[in-house]
Amino acid sequence: MANASVVPSTYLQGLTPAVPEWLNKGDNAWQMISGALVCIQSMPGLVIIYAGLVKKKWALNSAFMALFAFAAVMPCWVLWAYNMSFGEKLLPFWGKAGLAVSEDFLISQTILPSTQYKNITSAATPLFPMATMVFFQYPFAAETVILLCGSVLGRMSFRAWMAFVPLWLTFSYTVSAFSVWGGGFLFQWGVMDYSGGYVVHVASGAAGYTAAYWVGPRSKEDREEFPPNNLLLALAGAGILWMGWTGFNGGDPFAANVDSSMAVINTHICTATSLLVWTCLDVIHFRKPSVIGAIQGMMTGLVCITPGAGLVQGWAALVMGIASGTIPWYTMTVLSKKLPLLQKVDDTLEIFQTHAVAGTLGGALTGLFAHPYLCSMFLTVPNSKGSFYGDDGGVQFWKQLVGAAFIIGWNVVATSIILNVIKLLIPLRMTDEDIKIGDDAVHGEEAYALQGQGRRDRTIQNVTFADDDEVGAFKLPTPESKVSHLVVTETALLLLIFGLEFLAFRLSSFSTKFWTRRTYPRKLRDDTAALQQ
């Protein structure tokens, strides 16, 4: 009979490669759980929010655009984009590309090499493996792209979207992430973004609004009448999104510590307050409480607290909730009907208002209310604090505004260039006929089968077909040769885009000898030993 007191080697700290001395099991577990919560925010959270908030004919297309983006980001992330966001510095706003798939890299202790602040503080070295960090940061990148697509639902070509996702991740998201989080110039300057108010939300709002401009508006019929097809589904997605934000903000200290607890409680204080304020304003202005308004108020509260979740006190989170339930409500309900620019661009789900406006607001308020003691727990830049606590001339507040301006400017320019390049090869918009029909024309499928046993009717030009009729294989009246040629051409183009991106960034990583199999573990051991001394 085996001795029950013998501990399996996989649990012995420092005596097996599975549990190295530097590993903190609690931090590692919390970080993986937080990453899973952020994944659930997107899949299924945002997927079903989009499916519920759009018109019935766009439910499937909207959900599938989100699902595709969530999947497409992953291979790009591990092949080049992670290291461009969190690796060694190539430019003040960009990291060096490199693979994040090798055994030596993924099982070594996490290090963010560019986060060293001058010669004062060392680079961040959380107590869990690189595999955990790569996984945790992946859904942030995916969610940013998914949020962006909310601005162009109901008319953007799916094939253009397939080309857009890897290009935008590479040339836009990685710049924002490295500049603010990975040790770039905004990080070194002291711009505060606790867990993505700028990197995720301001970026997605600005890029989404720009994309909506270039893709063009929805059809006149859809703009005038676009009722949500399933508000209960949208509410379910909103609930998943809210609860998932516990990991979104709570995981960013990279440890299960006091600061992560502050981030979690502040997240829920601000969100609940924002939802209540937005609902009260709806009752005052429209005489009725709105479910859609409650979802929007929830969203702006989540976004607003994100830049300062673990940096502000509870009373400040309450103030930020009041502000996020008021200012975006005003810009969406009143200002958007007065400013010609806001009227000209058709932002389907108001991503600019709920994310860019709320994210900029949250960043500015963080610049006012960030508490010095809480900042010292998280930020590597010493003496960080909000203007409310005595910095000269409100310096931090102005830094926050400059940081937001850079994120907005870069995303507007990069998104414009990417879409205009794609436009040369693939139409950005669906055809007018596809826009008129919706899911059935784009995917040959519909979200809801209203006939018995899963059958559905297809009505085109006043002629109705059922799936089990003799004409069940009915196709849209597009010449087969034209469709075949278009599909082959665009598939080849997408493969070429992926191939060129991978080749370019693989060569970049090879030429700089970035974290090779031998030098990286040795460098990590040296850095860890120096820190322990």
Any descriptors?
63% helix; mainly alpha; 533 residues; transmembrane; NH4_transpt_AmtB-like_dom; transmembrane helix; two-stranded antiparallel sheet; Ammonium/urea_transptr; ammonium channel activity
Description:
By secondary structure, this protein is mostly helical. The chain has one domain: Ammonium transporter AmtB like domains (Ammonium transporter fold), CATH 1.10.3430.10. Helices cover 63% and strands 2% of the residues. It is built from 20 helices and four strands. The strands form two sheets. Strands 1-2 form a two-stranded antiparallel sheet. Strand 3 (457-460) and strand 4 (463-466) form a beta hairpin. It is globular. Residues 459-489 and 510-525 have low confidence and may be disordered.
